[in-house]
């Protein structure tokens, strides 16, 4: 990692910690009134968090916030803010890949297992940190989900300025994609364009052909008191249809947290996870007594069996061509990451530090 990149991440983490402090007596009172998890006695000592593979720096920031005594949901938001504010993470927040029209639309959801309250925003434009707006939807309204223009007006009412989220890098990538879509439209592809450092970086990271990757960060936290919370945030499917929402901002699909049971979130193909209510399914399997890994694999098996039974989504053996990943922590403090395909990773943070682990899987690549 370059020195400038390290400096940016450290600065972003520090700024994120500062920005999540209660800004009014109302928020302080709200946090003071948040109940703990009933029946959490005997749970594992200490806090623990689980996040997606892109969440190493996010986990470090969230862990530091927990050490400093932050509310667990505030700490989780501190963590994902690192990715949301990082212009080099093209799948989340500022610098996220835009939709097909060149507009960055962001989705986020928070859920508090102590109160079973949630807040979400979808297709939010001009705001680098949609996770913060989602938290305000939960705290300041009697609703759960705001989208599009309504979400933007709500963000503006709470002091979030309208900002340009498209960076020079992501603008180049979008134009390159748009120019390659057809050889009979009005767009022309420059021979030199693929050699542009930003476009070349994108092609090397995501493949020689621009397919349709997704990118998201999820974080679930179990506090030292046994409180369970989660947050998911994303810029969604690369070059998506304007207004498209995946699973990330949807309670029960891209995120679900329930006190005394567990918390789970996901990344990957949102459409497959939406129709199976994946994260809720994982938590329900926890309720039945399965371990986090067993619960995640069982939910993935359901996705495998129930979704996208069309040729373009299946390989020659009938297996999904897409991937879905789950990240889970239960009331005992046990964690797991699991995916449809091998090769995925997840990140855990606890009293011992932050580490990256191999995810369990249904199918091994190359077989």
Description:
By secondary structure, this protein is of the alpha+beta class. The chain has one domain: Glutamine Phosphoribosylpyrophosphate, subunit 1, domain 1. It has eleven helices and 13 strands. The radius of gyration is 20 Å and the shape is globular.
Shape: globular
The CATH superfamily bears the name: (Glycosyl)asparaginase
- Going by helix content, strand content and strand pairing, the class is alpha+beta
Low-confidence stretches: 15-44
Global mean pLDDT: 86
Let me know the largest β-sheet.
Answer: 8 strands, mixed
Number of strands: 13
CATH class: Alpha Beta
CATH third-tier fold name:
Glutamine Phosphoribosylpyrophosphate, subunit 1, domain 1
List the strand order in the largest sheet. 4-3-2-6-5-1-11-12
Distance between the termini: 33 Å
CATH architecture: 4-Layer Sandwich
* Beta content: 15-25%
**How much helical structure, as a percent, in the residues?**
25-40%
- Number of H- or I-type helical stretches: 11
Number of domains: 1
N-to-C SSE string, H for helix and E for strand: HHEHHEEHEHHHEEEEHHHEEEEE
Oligomeric state as shown: single chain
Please supply descriptive tags for the structure shown above:
367 residues, alpha+beta, Glutamine Phosphoribosylpyrophosphate, subunit 1, domain 1, 8-stranded mixed β-sheet, 5-stranded mixed β-sheet, 21% strand
Question: What is the topology?
Answer:
Elements: H1 3-19, H2 25-33, E1 48-52, H3 56-67, H4 72-84, E2 106-112, E3 117-124, H5 130-140, E4 145-147, H6 148-157, H7 168-180, H8 197-206, E5 216-222, E6 228-234, E7 255-258, E8 262-268, H9 270-274, H10 278-287, H11 292-306, E9 324-330, E10 335-341, E11 345-350, E12 353-358, E13 360-363
Parallel strand pairs: 3-4, 10-13
Antiparallel strand pairs: 1-5, 1-11, 2-3, 2-6, 5-6, 7-8, 8-9, 9-10, 11-12
Helix pairs in contact: 1-3, 1-4, 3-4, 10-11
């Amino acid at each position: 990692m370059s020195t400038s990149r390290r400096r940016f991440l450290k600065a972003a983490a520090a700024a994120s910690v500062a920005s999540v402090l209660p800004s009014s007596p109302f928020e302080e009172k709200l946090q003071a009134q948040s109940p703990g998890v009933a029946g959490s006695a005997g749970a594992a000592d200490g806090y623990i968090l689980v996040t997606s593979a892109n969440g190493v720096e996010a986990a470090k920031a969230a862990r530091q916030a927990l050490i400093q005594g932050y509310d667990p949901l505030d700490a989780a938001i501190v963590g994902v803010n690192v990715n949301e504010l990082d212009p080099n993470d093209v799948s989340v927040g500022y610098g996220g890949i835009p939709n097909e029209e060149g507009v960055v639309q962001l989705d986020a959801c928070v859920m508090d297992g102590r109160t079973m309250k949630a807040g979400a925003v979808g297709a939010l434009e001009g705001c680098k940190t949609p996770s913060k707006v989602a938290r305000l939807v939960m705290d300041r309204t009697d609703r759960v989900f705001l989208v599009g223009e309504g979400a933007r007006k709500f963000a503006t009412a709470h002091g979030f300025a309208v900002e340009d989220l498209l960076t020079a890098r992501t603008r180049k990538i979008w134009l390159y994609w748009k120019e390659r879509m057809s050889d009979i439209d009005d767009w022309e592809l420059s021979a030199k364009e693929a050699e542009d450092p930003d476009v070349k970086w994108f092609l090397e990271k995501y493949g020689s052909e621009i397919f349709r990757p997704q990118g998201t960060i999820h974080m679930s936290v179990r506090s030292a008191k046994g409180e369970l919370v989660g947050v998911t945030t994303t810029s969604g499917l690369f070059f998506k249809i304007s207004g498209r929402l995946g699973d990330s901002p949807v309670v029960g699909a891209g995120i679900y947290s329930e006190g005394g049971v567990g918390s789970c979130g996901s990344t990957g193909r949102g459409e497959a996870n939406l129709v199976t209510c994946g994260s809720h399914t994982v938590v329900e399997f926890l309720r039945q007594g399965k371990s986090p890994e067993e619960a995640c694999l069982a939910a993935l098996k359901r996705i495998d069996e129930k979704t996208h039974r069309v040729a373009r989504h299946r390989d020659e053996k009938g297996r999904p061509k897409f991937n879905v990943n789950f990240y889970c922590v239960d009331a005992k403090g046990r964690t797991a990451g699991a995916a449809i395909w091998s090769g995925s990773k997840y990140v855990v943070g606890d009293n011992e530090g932050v580490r990256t682990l191999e995810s369990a899987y249904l199918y091994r690549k190359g077989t």
